[in-house]
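Moderator note: this is an archived Q&A kept for reference. The question asked for a predicted structure of one protein chain; the sequence and the answer are reproduced below.
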Amino acid sequence: MNHFPLLRLPPEIRNVVYHIALYERRPVAISPNRPSEPSLLKTCKQIRQETELMFYAINDFTTTMTIGPHKHLVHWLSKPQRKLALIKSFTVRIELPGFDFWDVDALAEISRTERMGPTGRDLPTILTIVRRCAFGQRALESVLRFSVNGAGDDLRYFDALQLDLETFRKHFMAELLLMMVVFGSDAMDAMLEEEEPGCWEFLELEEMLQEGMRSRL
């Protein structure tokens, strides 16, 4: 069998080949059932040195948190900063259909609640790790995205007015998780106590939606 002399090609041509081989049209899923890196990176030492950073720079990444432990995600987020700093998009999807994400007590104690099982115990750790990620000195909110039971954190104010209350609550929770990563849970508590306008915007919208629901009855 004849082998293609890849390593004999000029570096700029090898980079083109690497890009084609490593690029994923869909976000790369971080899952315990999937290798964290493509097999190309395990071919030989030279190819790994030439490709591992490119893999993180050219792809988007996503992970789904359900009921169960998430040690694989904690391990993945513990990669060297030189890799994570290159990531331009990372989405965390939380799928817990049976959990009431609008329980006020659960929201107030999201970092301590046990009612979400292993997910509730792992989530604070994951939020802390993500908050420490440099992502190339880019703003966390420009890289990180959350969704909760299908509802994302990128909802615009006027779009939210068109939603039913339950759907809005899921969007609110996703936004709250992002804010906790950006500002930290302690800072979030302080901001809410001081009634900063940026934080209360969603709470005021919730009150408006509640009033609208009552007016329909």
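Archived answer notes: Confidence is low (pLDDT under 50) at residues 110-115.
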